[in-house]
Amino acid sequence: MSQPASPETLKTLYENMGKIIEDFSPLLKTNILRQEALDINIENNTSKILEALLSLNTYFLYMNIELASLQRACYRANLPAEKRYNIKYINCVILEGYKYLYGYKSKRRKSLWMSKIKPLLAIIPEQEFEKDYKELENQIIEFGENNITNHEQRNLSFHYDREPISVYDMLIELSEETEAQRMILFLDLLQNTTFFVLKYIERYNTYIHIDTQAVLKYVFSFSDIDIFQNSKDSLYTTLEGAIKNNSIRLDQFAWQQGFPTKINQHFKDIDQDLNFFISQFMQVGKSAIQLTYLYIDLASASRAFISSEYVIEKQLSLKQINTIIYEGFNKLFGLEDNKGDSFWEKYIHPIVLDDNNKSTYEEFSALTEELNIFQERINKCGVQRQLSVHLDKGIVEVYNMLHNLGPIKEFQKALQFLTILPKVLNFFTKCLHIVDARRKTDYEKKMQPTYQKLDNLIDLLEKSPNTPQKEELMKMINKLKTGEFLDEILKRKK
After folding, report:
1. Is the pLDDT score of 102 beyond 90?
2. Which residue of 117, 147, 168, 300 shows the fewest CB atoms closer than 10 Å?
3. Comparing C-alpha atoms, which of 242, 406, 398, 183 is closest to residue 314?
């Protein structure tokens, strides 16, 4: 069994990754400037070859920088939830990177390799080039066939899920060793790619004039401004507290979500009224879990930004903040095409309608209006979100998007969202009180036979062998019977 890396080894790796960012960032910028300055409309084979090789080199440099930034953010993370936040994106970056390089199925013909590198076989009639091309292509194909990336994990990491406990299970099962192995295999492929690029770019290199104005557009970056100044340390600590508190809350919510399954496994003929009541509580709990993810992810991305040493590290953190807000809002409240399937509409709205209370409906309507106004701001970030997740528009487009990101604007958006979320959490609490009040009135008499069945189940469990699962289930049943289970949830959401 392999031994975990020592603190000294991890620190050395962290510094080496920093050196990669420091060395590759100016090379990436220069490479992009050459790409943008190259007139690919000229019917010249040398220009076509150079344009293709520059594109591949830009890809290599960018992917190394993004993975190095992720690894460094993982190292700086103090809390398990914060570390998991960063680790989950390793698979995402590799999958999106491979998809752009070679593609999957029907998208393959539009990939960088097929659209730009493969045509060089007809332009460079050399056996050596064909041999090197086939060797590298075989390595690329082998990487894709070995299931090194995980598409389901990628979707849960980027998009969350209608069943938020699936995201929780994915996060808990994340292995730092597994993700590190993914990275090592992909970095090996990138290394072989750069050997290929540098060998032939040297042969077909030519002078490209870069306009002064083009150079100047990359000289200044808003991400290089210290927007927090003297408050940086206190904000960093405050965000750590937010991650810690919401991680505890998330674990509690996840534990509660397992209750219906455990009850049904041992109690097949559970009363329908009780089932409905438990179901409504769990649905509000799902909404609360999604909200908790947003707190943890936004705080983790913000801490990664604050603690970053290099400008492009900060830019990569900003694009994650944008993605988190977009995707989190989409699941919790919905965008134009899926509002009916959002947590807000699917789980919260029915409770409001059943309550038949004017003040509740007015509060719900006011919150909905505030969310709709914020959605208008989210809608404007659609292109930015697309470039933050996918590379299909090209690395140059992604890099320009990163360069133009303004930390003040992105943090204002995050702050506005974080101002709304506590109001939503308070409304979730109100919904839980509504459900609980209904239990105490409408269902109390109906549920007496069910309570007797619960007593019978407790008697049976007491006679069975002692196991941790038995003790946990008995505790859950007793808390449900007395109402303590519900009281605990209500207190945690206050």
Report:
1. yes
2. 147
3. 406
